[in-house]
């Protein structure tokens, strides 16, 4: 049985389910997957040092997560226009002469949205957070035909840079820079959290509960835990909810295909992961 060495470089990743996803997908294809969690701060190294060690030690590839997705772009060759439109990289394969970078948050969001909402258009979307996952999601919303996107980020310059990038690739989508998350929510059909708020160790919600009922659908990029405060409040408000687990699943399937060349059925993988999680309880 072939062995494929993979890893995840990120900050707060101790509870990540990525190792389980890739090892399970590998077993479904007759592959042995090793998948390591690589936290630069715990290793006393910089992102670049961890990246280089993976390249030099025989890793087939790595996933990259918060807060390194934008930094990873400078270390890879981007040969896909969709990835260039995003400006953030979450999947790398180590090939000569330089590593190649991909963004499966982008492709995974499109696949997850279609699986959950069918052919519906996103409409007018309010998005909190303009970092790596925000970049991927904004580009995916452009691909899905969103009418307009209101972006709020506590770093106004980062929000402006994202709006400029998205506008250059999706000129038909109206881009709005919001001065507050409440302003971004005005008239929104979709509410999208692309901040770390809600993940383990980062309590809170990006969107105030009182204004949720005006929306139609909601998405939270956080998947650890799946039932964040935002997700729970959106369900209570009657919104159609796409959790971060959906993005996690579909971006993982796309990353696994890049790493191994193997296609995995999303339903079969979902069932296999559920069985493993239930067995662990």
From TrEMBL:
Alphabetically ordered keywords of this record: Amino-acid biosynthesis, Aromatic amino acid biosynthesis, Oxidoreductase
Coiled-coil region(s): none
Pfam families from the UniProt entry: SDH_C, Shikimate_dh_N
UniProt pathway annotation: Metabolic intermediate biosynthesis; chorismate biosynthesis; chorismate from D-erythrose 4-phosphate and phosphoenolpyruvate: step 4/7
Residues annotated as domain SDH C-terminal: 244-274
Shikimate dehydrogenase substrate binding N-terminal domain segment(s): 8-92
Record-linked InterPro entries: Aminoacid_DH-like_N_sf (IPR046346), NAD(P)-bd_dom_sf (IPR036291), SDH_C (IPR041121), Shikimate_DH-bd_N (IPR013708), Shikimate_DH_fam (IPR022893)
UniProt name for this protein: Shikimate dehydrogenase family protein
Species of provenance: Lacibacterium aquatile
């Amino acid at each position: 049985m072939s062995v494929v060495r993979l890893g995840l470089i990120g900050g707060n990743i101790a509870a990540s389910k990525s190792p389980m996803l890739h090892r399970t997908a590998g077993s479904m294809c007759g592959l042995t997957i090793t998948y390591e969690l690589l936290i630069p701060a715990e290793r006393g190294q910089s992102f670049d040092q961890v990246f280089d060690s993976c390249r030099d030690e025989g890793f087939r590839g790595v996933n990259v997560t918060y807060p390194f997705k934008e930094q990873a772009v400078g270390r890879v060759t981007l040969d896909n226009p969709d990835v260039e439109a995003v400006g953030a990289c979450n999947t790398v394969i180590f090939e000569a002469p330089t590593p190649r970078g991909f963004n499966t948050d982008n492709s995974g969001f499109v696949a997850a949205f279609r699986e959950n909402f069918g052919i519906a258009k996103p409409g007018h979307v309010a998005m909190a957070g303009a970092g790596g996952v925000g970049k991927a999601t904004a580009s995916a919303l452009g691909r899905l035909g969103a009418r307009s996107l209101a972006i709020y980020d506590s770093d106004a310059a980062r929000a402006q840079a994202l709006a400029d990038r998205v506008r250059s690739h999706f000129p038909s989508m109206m881009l709005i820079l919001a001065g507050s998350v409440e302003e971004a929510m005005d008239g929104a059909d979709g509410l999208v959290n692309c901040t770390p708020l809600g993940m383990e160790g980062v309590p809170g919600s990006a969107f105030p509960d009182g204004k949720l009922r005006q929306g139609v659908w909601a998405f939270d990029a956080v998947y650890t835990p799946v039932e964040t405060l935002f997700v729970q409040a959106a369900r209570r408000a009657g919104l159609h909810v796409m959790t971060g687990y959906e993005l996690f699943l579909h971006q993982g399937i796309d990353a696994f295909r890049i790493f191994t060349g193997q296609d995995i059925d999303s339903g079969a993988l979902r069932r296999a992961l559920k069985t493993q999680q239930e067995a662990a309880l």
